[in-house]
Design brief:
The complex is a heterodimer of chains A (155) and B (718). Chain A has 155 residues and is α+β, with helices and mostly antiparallel strands. In chain A, 37% of the residues lie in helices and 12% in strands. Chain A has helices spanning 20-27, 83-90, 100-113, 119-126, 136-154; strands spanning 2-5, 8-11, 46-49, 52-55, 68-70. In chain A, strands 2-1-5-3-4 form a 5-stranded mixed β-sheet, with helices on one face. Chain A starts with a strand and ends with a helix. In chain B, the strands form 7 sheets. In chain B, strands 9-10-7-17-14-15-16 form a 7-stranded mixed β-sheet. Chain B is an alpha+beta fold and 718 residues long. Chain B has 3 domains: 3-16 and 52-215, 2-Layer Sandwich (Aldehyde Oxidoreductase, domain 4); 225-295 and 351-426, 2-Layer Sandwich (Aldehyde Oxidoreductase, domain 4); 315-343 and 438-708, Aldehyde Oxidoreductase, domain 4. Chain B starts with 20 loop residues before the first helix and ends in a 10-residue tail after the last helix. Chain B is 31% helix and 22% strand. In chain B, helix 1 (21-34) packs antiparallel against helix 2, helix 11 crosses helix 12 (407-419) and helix 15 runs parallel beside helix 19 (696-708). Classes of the chains: A alpha+beta (155), B alpha+beta (718). At the A-B interface, helix 1, helix 2, helix 3, helix 4 and helix 5 of A face helix 7 and helix 18 of B.
């Protein structure tokens, strides 16, 4: 079956009951998307499916055939970082970094839908992504900073 | 440097992980002259005061490679698990080399080199221990380059600036490090130790430079052990016992080999595993195996806690002056008992290793804090000599002490040896929860008495814990120490108390326990600093003032005073908290770093909320203040998660939590505002990764008491 990931076509074995996460990581070499719990709880495996933040460990291939899938590797525009990546870098947000692909994909989906979130809306969107290093204070600031960067970029 | 120079052989004295031969020898000798109890006390004093020796080569050609374009590549002995250590250590090198920050980059050393590090990355010791080593080594290289450059320029005295050797009489005459290093010449190390840059001229040390690893991390391009991939690799999965301590009595492949994608079933003594073309297939095939387990008697976590309480009275003295037991006889005694539960590391990257066993050599890529130990462990598993095994550590998706021993590496080695192919083993979350070592439960029984002025006249603490470091050291050494010094980290009191006795008992438990970020620090400071708060209230004193007046008249006492006063000022201590909220204070000393926290708590409905935390930290000297602030913020959040929510429970000999649904972590919605102030008390850095989290559980607990008037004595609080 055909998958569209970061604008590129991939052909993978026609086993529709496999979770997307394992195909990304173990077959296509897109290891930027992380395994954390395998149960849709921690958020480390978050990707975009048609722009929506989606847990790839709970997403069977059958449900994403024909969809536009974006992973962390496709978030930047070539060399130019996405505003969320810029903000996470600017505020020196990641520690170990394992959860950060999921954090940034969740944040990018939020800001695409709501470019001007309140603090409460930001927390509501980000609260299902664990960070064991405890970078939460910086994550919160970085998401709000990314919203500012997007506005500056749009002008 | 010339490439061939880097092949130079060197041997390092094996004084690594926690116990050096010098310490052990000293302990035994002390035991002979002082008697065992006194020797154990002396060892406890030494461990608490001295820190551990850093034994590292100081040969610049091992540490640094200068490329023709002038870039300096530093061979990094320590692993990057989010603590920013690569950046901090590179700052030390850039400082003394006299290069621009942009000129330096790092490469990870493996278990065999270039800079072999038997100590591993642990104990908040990387920056503290390598501070002299890296600066001296880099300064030596700088002087070698200076001498070579001066000779080339035909001058007696040359200056160094931004990677150039410069003629001070005519700064246009200059030669770059890259050009010098590319020349074939006899390199001479200076006979005298190269001078170190004095603190007033530091341009890199103390600067919040951006982390070297973050550009890759924001792109998802950083490679961790779970991500390690090579051509032709397979995936492994290993059968797990249904109960802790169960032994595999009999195993057979069952129907596993008929499942498409299964390559091999590997059964050997006590081990059954599957190798397959994909991870999903390998794990699915575990259900096809026929397995018979020999089950030990079942137990619960309550059984373990009772065992601690029953044995706490018979511990080894770890701090003693005056006669606490005598002073507590008769008179009014304040008593309290504190407990903390088993807890998990919950590193978000489960343990993982890729191992390629070939006839003549073994290569492994492992998410580990201890590549040298993992190499030895793989070698022992395969019955090979350790020098044929090379373990390259990757980035770590969380370490927290969990990645000192990597069972997955031994498992991947067994499976790779059986198939002749590289095999990756990456544990599931359920394996990580149910088959890892845990933070042990602790128990601390206190008795204390106050004098007429409300000062502590006597205090006794009987502490008990499961193993933290004892599983890492041989039995004779455990006997020398008497109690597990990792378990009692943070249990010794920092206050001036005329009659004081702290004992610690190490209790064998039927569940694997080991180091968790800070070892005993969070649990023990929770107990000690909560009890000190009880005494302050019993004395009718303000908890800050009570602490200040019990500080010793020493340099450490002065640092504690400064840090406590700093956090008090940040938090507006003494002014009322907002309505419905209250504040608590606590402090700790760990790896010579002083930390003090104020927490502000309240209830939202029946849910305990921590709204704000103020933290003052004196690490001596922060090499990278923004990095230390991040460690402080993160340590507080991880500590809060443990304080409010975390507890591993066991039923019928099995850990209940198989995933985060039964072991929830702190989320961004629970996270307080955190304000951090980094203090400087000298020109020497102390521990940074663990010490700043020390006071958080006690600060929250003391705030909760201030709010409710009811004292809690057991974690979790939420």
């Amino acid at each position: 079956m055909e998958l569209t990931i970061n604008g590129q076509q991939y052909t993978v074995a026609d086993e529709p009951a496999r979770p997307l996460l394992y195909v990304l990581r173990d077959e296509l070499g897109l290891t930027g998307t992380k395994f954390g719990c395998g149960a849709g709880i921690c958020g480390a495996c978050t990707v975009h499916v048609n722009g929506k933040a989606t847990r790839s460990c709970q997403t069977m291939l059958a449900t994403v055939a024909g969809a536009q899938i974006t992973t962390i590797e496709g978030l930047a525009d070539g060399e130019r970082l996405h505003p969320v990546q810029q903000a996470f870098l600017e505020l020196q947000t990641p520690q170990c970094g394992w959860c950060m692909s999921g954090q940034m994909m969740t944040a990018a989906a939020l800001l695409a839908e709501n470019p001007n979130p309140t603090h409460e809306e930001m927390i509501a969107a980000m609260r299902y992504n664990y960070c064991r290093c405890g970078a939460y204070a910086r994550i919160a600031r970085a998401v709000m900073r990314a919203a500012e960067l997007m506005k500056e970029g749009a002008v | 440097m010339k490439r061939d120079a880097r092949t130079q052989r060197w041997r390092m004295t094996r004084r690594g992980f926690l116990i050096g031969l010098g310490i052990v020898g000293g302990g035994l000798a002390l035991g002979a002259t002082l008697g065992l109890p006194a020797a154990r006390l002396a060892l406890a004093d030494w461990l608490d005061g001295a820190g551990f020796p850093a034994s590292m080569p100081k040969d610049p050609e091992i540490w640094f490679a200068i490329q023709p374009d002038g870039r300096v590549v530093m061979a990094m002995p320590k692993v990057e698990m989010g603590q920013g250590v690569h950046t901090a250590l590179a700052q030390l090198a850039a400082e003394e080399l006299g290069v621009a920050w942009e000129q330096i980059s790092v490469t990870q050393s493996s278990s065999i080199g270039p800079v072999r590090d038997p100590a591993g990355t642990n104990a908040s010791f990387s920056v503290m221990g390598l501070f002299p080593v890296i600066r001296e080594t880099a300064a030596t290289l700088r002087e070698m380059l200076r001498a070579a450059g001066a000779e080339q320029l035909g001058i007696a005295q040359a200056e160094i600036e931004q990677g150039f050797v410069i003629d001070p009489a005519n700064p246009a005459r200059r030669i770059g490090f890259g050009e010098l290093a590319a020349q074939r010449r006899e390199w001479q190390a200076p006979e005298e130790a190269a001078p170190l840059t004095p603190p007033d001229r530091w341009r890199m040390i103390g600067q919040p430079v951006p982390r070297l690893d973050l550009p890759a991390k924001v792109r998802g391009a950083a490679i961790y052990g779970y991500d390690a991939r090579v051509e032709g690799m397979l995936y492994g999965a290993v059968a797990r016992p249904p109960r802790l301590g169960a032994k595999l009595r009999r195993a057979a492949p069952g129907t596993a080999l008929s499942r498409p994608g299964v390559v091999q079933v590997v059964i050997r003594d006590g081990f059954a595993g599957v190798v397959a073309e994909s991870r999903l297939t390998a794990y699915a095939a575990l259900n096809d195996l026929e397995l018979e387990w020999e089950l030990p008697p079942p137990f619960t976590h309550q059984d373990l806690e009772e065992r601690l309480a029953a044995q706490a009275g018979s511990g080894t003295p770890i701090q003693q002056h005056g006669d606490a037991t005598g002073a507590l006889r008769g008179g009014q005694v304040i008593e309290a008992t504190y407990r903390t539960p088993l807890a998990a590391h919950a590193n978000l990257e489960p343990q993982a290793a890729l191992v390629d066993v070939q006839p003549d050599r073994v290569r492994a890529w492992v998410s580990t804090q201890s590549p040298v130990q993992v190499a030895s462990s793989i070698a022992a598993t395969l019955g090979r000599s350790a020098d044929t095994v090379e373990v390259t550590p990757t980035y770590l998706g969380g370490g927290f002490g969990r990645k000192l021993l990597i069972t997955a590496a031994n498992e991947a080695a067994i499976l790779s040896a059986a198939t002749g192919k590289p095999v990756h083993v990456g544990w599931t979350r359920t394996e990580e929860f149910r088959h890892s070592y845990l933070r042990p439960p602790t128990y601390a029984a206190f008795r204390a008495a106050l004098d007429g002025q409300g000062n502590i006249i006597a205090l006794e603490q009987r502490h008990a814990s499961g193993n933290v470091l004892f599983d890492f050291i041989p039995a004779p050494l455990r006997w020398v120490f008497g109690s597990d010094f990792g378990a009692w980290r943070g249990a010794r009191l920092v206050y001036n108390i005329p009659n004081l006795l702290v004992t610690s008992q190490t209790v064998e438990l039927p569940v694997p326990t080991g180091p968790w970020r800070g070892l005993g620090l969070l649990a023990n400071v929770f107990a000690v600093e909560s009890f000190i708060d009880e005494l302050a209230h019993a004395a009718g004193s303000d908890p800050l003032e009570f602490r200040l007046r019990h500080l010793p008249d020493s340099e450490l006492g002065q640092r504690l005073r400064t840090t406590l006063l700093a956090v008090a000022e940040m938090a507006g201590w003494g002014q009322p908290a907002p309505a419905g909220r209250a504040r608590g204070i606590a402090c700790s000393v760990d790896m010579h770093t002083v930390a003090a926290h104020v927490a502000e708590v309240g209830y939202e409905g029946d849910k305990l909320r921590v709204y704000r935390v103020w933290a003052a930290v004196d690490p001596g000297l922060a090499i990278n203040p923004n990095g230390l602030a991040a460690q402080t913020e993160g340590g507080i959040m991880m500590g809060l998660s443990a304080t409010l929510f975390e507890q591993v429970t066991i039923s019928e000999g099995r850990i209940d939590a198989g995933n985060f649904d039964r072991y929830p972590l702190l989320t961004i919605a629970d996270a307080p505002e955190v304000a951090v102030q980094i203090l400087r008390s000298g020109d020497q850095p102390f521990g940074g990764g663990e010490p700043p989290m020390g006071p958080i559980a006690a600060a929250v607990n003391n705030a909760l008491f201030a709010l409710t008037g009811e004292r809690k004595r057991q974690l979790p609080l939420g």
